[in-house]
């Protein structure tokens, strides 16, 4: 059923429960068929009001900061799989207490904290804590350098020449993360590169974390190939495989609902200003960059149709998106709906320029709207001093 927008404030991120469940059901079928563990990556989707739904299908989550670790503990009830490019001395004790797996980004990081890990395990014999090392297979098909962890000079992961012939004592697992919204064919080629460089070490490992970027909920994704690849690796090396997708879980599960505040002519170009911000509320569209889809609009200008350059409400000159065409002229108060705005969007929002954050809500399976959170002056003030 269609969403009743009369109930929803503007701007607002709206998660659709039925769409989230559809994704999770598919992901659950993959982990059962492949015999692997698929866990939620908070860096892509940290909407903790939806964690009770996620928990029905997934048995773990991964964090890249102590704050994300706490969110997993508090709202999922799980010990975290934790990876950080570098750990803080002041946080490490708490991270050990709150994690089931800790991955180190470098040998120097492992050597620095190894003694503390051993002491913690000795003092807590009933606690399960498994450590791993992130590797760089020096192969990635990610086109945008900002998202490519295998570019020369990358700070993420250890290359094969820096590792010994045997995994360091105390290291149980190997972790790589070189995909970004890719298909299983890309994973196949990545695994070939991984095995070529690290195959001897995989035989020594207890688990292999394949990171995120597995966009298995995208239409056309070859699910059967993914299941075969994971099963083959598990059998060949006798280890547990872990996947931690970010985008796949919340892929196309919700929108950003916005409103036109003004329409004006700017040197022959029609401009519509919205009650949201590309820079503050959708920074991924400018970083990646990509042009978000708008419901009922044409992605590219169409000759003869009303065409507008959409802009945000901050004072940043570049706070605008490209030109879209519509079937009718835009007017103040018209609704603009940005599609697929749940993953990697809410997690990056800011209050730049003092602009309020969009509200957050869920369109429930019973076709009712639940307003989860709204923001105001206090939210802005609390981020400053």
From TrEMBL:
Q: Does the keyword Amino-acid biosynthesis apply?
A: no
Q: What is this protein called?
A: Carboxynorspermidine/carboxyspermidine decarboxylase
Task: Please give the SUPFAM superfamilies that the UniProt record associates with this protein.
Answer: Alanine racemase C-terminal domain-like, PLP-binding barrel
* Cofactors named for this entry: pyridoxal 5'-phosphate
Which family is it part of?
A: Belongs to the Orn/Lys/Arg decarboxylase class-II family. NspC subfamily.
Top enzyme class, one word, equals lyase
Catalyzes what? carboxynorspermidine + H(+) = norspermidine + CO2; carboxyspermidine + H(+) = spermidine + CO2
> What EC number(s) would the UniProt record show?
4.1.1.96
Q: Where is the signal peptide?
A: none
According to the UniProt entry, its GO molecular function terms are: lyase activity
Tell me which UniProt keywords the record has, alphabetically. Answer: Decarboxylase, Lyase, Pyridoxal phosphate, Spermidine biosynthesis
- Sorted alphabetically, which NCBIfam families does this protein's record hold? nspC
Q: Which InterPro entries match?
A: Ala_racemase/Decarboxylase_C, De-COase2_C, Nsp_de-COase, PLP-binding_barrel
Instruction: List residues of the Orn/DAP/Arg decarboxylase 2 C-terminal domain.
Output: 252-341
């Amino acid at each position: 059923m269609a969403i009743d927008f009369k109930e929803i404030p503007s701007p607002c991120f709206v998660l659709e429960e039925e769409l989230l469940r559809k994704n999770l059901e598919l992901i659950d079928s993959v982990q059962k068929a492949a015999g692997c563990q698929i866990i939620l990556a908070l860096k892509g989707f940290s909407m903790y009001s939806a964690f009770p739904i996620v928990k029905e299908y997934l048995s773990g989550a991964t964090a890249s900061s102590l704050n994300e670790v706490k969110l997993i503990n508090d709202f999922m009830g799980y010990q975290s799989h934790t990876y950080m490019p570098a750990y803080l001395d002041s946080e490490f004790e708490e991270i050990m207490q709150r994690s089931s797996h800790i991955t180190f980004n470098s040998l120097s990081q492992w050597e620095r904290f190894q003694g503390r890990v051993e002491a913690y395990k000795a003092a807590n014999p009933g606690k399960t804590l498994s450590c791993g090392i992130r590797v760089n297979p020096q192969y990635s098909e990610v086109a945008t350098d900002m998202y490519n962890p295998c570019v020369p000079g990358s700070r993420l992961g250890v290359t094969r020449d820096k590792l010994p012939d045997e995994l360091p004592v105390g290291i149980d697992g190997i972790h790589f993360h070189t995909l970004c919204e890719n298909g299983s064919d890309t994973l196949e080629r990545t695994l070939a590169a991984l095995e070529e460089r690290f195959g001897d070490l995989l035989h020594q490992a207890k688990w292999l974390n394949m990171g995120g970027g597995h966009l298995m909920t995208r239409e056309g994704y070859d699910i059967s190939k993914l299941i075969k690849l994971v099963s083959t690796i598990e059998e060949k090396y006798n280890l547990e495989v872990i996947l931690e997708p970010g985008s796949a879980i919340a892929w196309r599960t919700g929108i950003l609902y916005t409103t036109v505040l003004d329409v004006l002519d700017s040197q022959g170009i029609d401009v519509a200003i919205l009650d949201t911000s590309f820079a503050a509320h959708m920074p991924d569209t400018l970083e990646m960059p990509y042009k978000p889809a708008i419901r009922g609009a044409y992605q590219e200008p169409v000759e003869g149709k009303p065409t507008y350059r959409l802009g945000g409400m901050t004072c940043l000159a570049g706070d605008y998106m490209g030109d879209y065409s519509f079937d009718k002229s835009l007017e103040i108060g018209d609704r603009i709906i940005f599609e697929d705005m749940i993953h990697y969007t809410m997690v990056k929002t800011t209050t730049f320029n003092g602009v309020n954050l969009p509200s957050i809500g869920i369109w429930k399976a019973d076709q009712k709207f639940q307003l989860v959170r709204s923001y105001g002056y206090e939210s802005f003030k609390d981020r400053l001093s």
